Structure formats: structure tokens, C-alpha cells
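REQUEST FORM: STRUCTURE PREDICTION
Request ID: SP-0412
Submitted by: Lab K.M.
Chain count: 1
Length (residues): 222
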Amino acid sequence: ERYQTVYSRYEGAVAAPTAGLHFTQPQLEELAKKGIQIDYLTLHVSGATFQPIKTANLKDHPMHAEHIIISNNNLKHLLSLKTIIAVGTTSMRTLESIYWYGVQLLLGTNSEFKIDKLAPYDYDTNDLPVRDDALNEVLKFMNKNQTEKLAGETSIFIFPGYKFKICDGLITNFHLPKSTLLLLIAALVGEDWRTIYEEALTEDYRFLSYGDSSLLLPKGDS
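STATUS: Completed
RESULT:
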């Protein structure tokens, strides 16, 4: 019971989305009073999240598929927002996967909601649709099929060189070396990840599930 966010609803994950453990109900209510819109997604965390990278080429690291569920309202809310901060790497991977699903639908490459680990790197970056076009295409697909919720799976692997399409920032705990999540951090903030983690080590911040939290933004944001 202690290893749950206050907003958890569905069984299926092998671990809690630990960035969300920092939020209490009063905090969520206070954020809402300040006009910060809060939305909820589902990604069932798998054991692969904790699997360290052991391959010489990181692209060969196996990424297990994780089950995700999004709603019609999720898409409408995303389309109405200018700034989107993901709470946890699970939310970030889900949000980015929604974009790539929209790309698949727009280009007619795959109507199945399934994002392979290296799918984002298979496209010419000059020909990619803007965020709203991709999201609207997913919304159009859901409306056409008269469904309020859409289930799929993602193995998306985010590492340096990845260009974020949905998320403008991330609230997350501190991760261990050789983890795919540390690569995700490096993709978001660039080489600044070293400075961030040096600070965490120097100040004896706590790592992992019950550790300290951070708000990370790409360089140049404030």
C-alpha cells in the first residue's frame, strides 16, 4: 500500500511510477488552484525498466514492450496545452509514443498502436509532422473507431540524439549508471546531466524509488 501513488487506479505494473510518489492529494489540489492542469496516463511498468545496459552497442539493448492506455480526453488536453511536463519517465515514454503513433497513422505505415524501440530513428527528421498534426490524427482514429480509450504497447528507447516531440520537461528521481533511464535524462538535458548528477552526489541526494526528486528542463528553458 505504501508503494503507490495517491492517484493509482489500475493493477498491472511491477513497480510504481516513482516520480509520482512525491505528490500528495493536497499538493495536487494546490496545483489545480494555480491553474496547472493535471492529466493521467497508464503505462504498466515492466521489469525491463530496471535492466542495466550490458551490450557494447546500446541499440542492441533489449527493450521489453510495456502496455499503455490513453484516453480521448488525454489527447484533447494535450492539444490545448503549450507546456507539457511529464511526471516520471513512464509518463514521458507514453507521451512520446503517442506522437510516434500519430506519425504511423499519418504516413500509413502501421495502424497498430505499437511503437518499436528504434522507431523514432527510422524517419527523416525533415519530413516529420508537427506535434498537433500527429495528436489530431490519433484523435481522428479514435473518433472514427468510436472509442474513448486506446490500448497499445511501447518499447520506445530514448537516448542522446532523440528529439522530444511532446514533452517540454520532466519531474523524475535520480537513476543509477548503465540504466536506460539515465540515457533518457541525457537525451533531455544534454551534457548537463553530468553536472546535475555531480550535484546530486556532492549533496548526498537519495537515489531510486524513495529518493529525491528533480525538475529537469532542456538547456535554454527557464
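NOTES: Strands lie at 42-43, 66-71, 85-87, 114-115, 149-154, 169-173, 213-216.
Reviewed by: T.R.
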